[in-house]
User: Fold these one by one.
Assistant:
Number 1:
Amino acid sequence: MAEGPQVQCLDVWETVHRRKGRSTRLINIYNKARVEGGGYTIDHLDLSRLIVGRTILAGDFNARSPAWDPWVSSRHNAGTVERLIERHQPIVNNNDYQPTRWGKNCKSIIDLTLSTRNVGELTSWGIDPDRATTSDHEVIVFAWTPLRAIVATEEAIAAPNWNIERLCADEQAMAEAAEHWRLLSEGRPLVDSHAATEEELEAEAFWIQNSLKIVLDIHAPGKTACARSKRW
């Protein structure tokens, strides 16, 4: 999916057991100056449409600011990039000891790697000095935590195989489990799925999952999980 000659947009799918599991959008930007219509490339992009879900923006932003560049004391063409960071709150993964561009008499960080909060901080980021480039910009290599590693970790700490059938067959046990759930949820305000923010919905989903695990661990204990166990 392309957004123009200075922008490349690619959605990368990670699979688990041959099924699509998670998508990460990679946006490569060359923030070229003096484009048609004036200004820089980024001034003409609808970033709210491009930055969707898990997104990583990387490229030559042609902007200098003390906010990310320790070798500069004043701002230069940084307004749009600073507003992007302020509005979307991405993580700046560059470090402050590796310049991304070397000039004749200076060094700078104008090539940024930004990741949205749902991607999180990249697991690795750095300059690769062994890769040759025909420009005065360095080659940047980065990585994020792969979905397979997350799934493997979750499976390794998965809950026991709860004995749901035995619980459903025992009226007293079911009543005790229902009372336990009532005590946990009593007084907890309902979440309006239409008005709640993404963070509020994620927090509610986490609470439901964690509380359900507590109730089932106590009232429907099963055998210890093994590598081939299923949660339900």
Number 2:
Amino acid sequence: MRRLITAIAVPIALLSVVALTASAADAGNVARAGKSKVAITSLTTPPPDHTWVFKGKVTSRNAKCLSNRRVDIYVAASGRRRGSAPDGPVASGKTNEKGKFKADTGQELLLLAPYQAVVAGRKHKGLTCQEAESKPFNPQT
């Protein structure tokens, strides 16, 4: 009887250790997630071509989540009317080492509507930098 109990208890104990080790590894991955925020700070039309250029910043507590992030600018959902706004991004850019970005539209005139910046999530050397979406930015105000 004692052998039967030992034969059952040992595998159960080993499975428990494996499960706890896997949980600890998952907890480490959660701690390695870099939360991000993105904001549009200005919209300018610099010479010579006077195209619209969005400027903004991605912020994160983890410096590895700042540089070389792709930022897309969209017409915000609150500014969309059927057929009046493009479905895809109106501008795209990359962040520098400080998280600052410029996204040139390549157009002289855009809709006077609210816009949103979206930074894509990415994995970088075991760190997951989370995606983020800005609050609507209204160029009229």
Number 3:
Amino acid sequence: MSLLSTAWRWAFWAFSFLSLAAACFQQRPQFPEPVKVGVCTSFRPLVDEVVRTGLWNLEITEGPSRFVLKGFEAGEFDLAIIALPLPEATIIATDTLAIVVHPSNRVNSLTLEELKRLYAGYIWDWSLLGGRGEVVIVSREEGSGARALFEEAVMKGERLSPAALIAPSSQSVLDYVSFREGAIGYVSGAMVGKEVKTVLVEGKAISSPDYPLKLPAYAIWQTEAGRKLLEFIKGPAGRKILSHRYLLP
């Protein structure tokens, strides 16, 4: 191989490397301080996916949707991601609200009416639905976007049973349901693991396009850093990393 050919080869690889480095540098947002993000517990996995790209330095505060919204209104966050609809917010992804039970529970499917009767306290034993043992219902606290959706789509004005256990986060719901055989709860489908079992709702699995309980993620920004982060999430790179967990608009 001639020296000229070798020189051209090295020049080509050097140019390719520098072009790739420049592209990566341009893609990395340049903010001297961490971008402050408030996120409801149902959508913490969404923010974690962004963190895993290594492109963003985020300061994350997690809590119920109304807690996050209150912090946003007080100027504490550049960007807020919640499960409550706001006129000025934009939908960045859609999750499912999964109904979870202990893996030993023999009940595999529930209708919306059966869910309502369970959470209202009218069905107190799983034997009435083909299972066995006492029913223990677990709900989220007031201010949770997941609870707001559940009350709107399932309860439809029916009161929650006074016997319901109130969990402060989606992870708390999962932890409790995973060790209590008679327990039932609801959480973001993106958070469900092997420690619990999801039941069909109206015969539909959470992976089904027409699953009846959809949980949208709403985002709202108020600083330049928040706007840039939202642009990334809605852009090609953001959509690619979120698409394996969520439905995208």
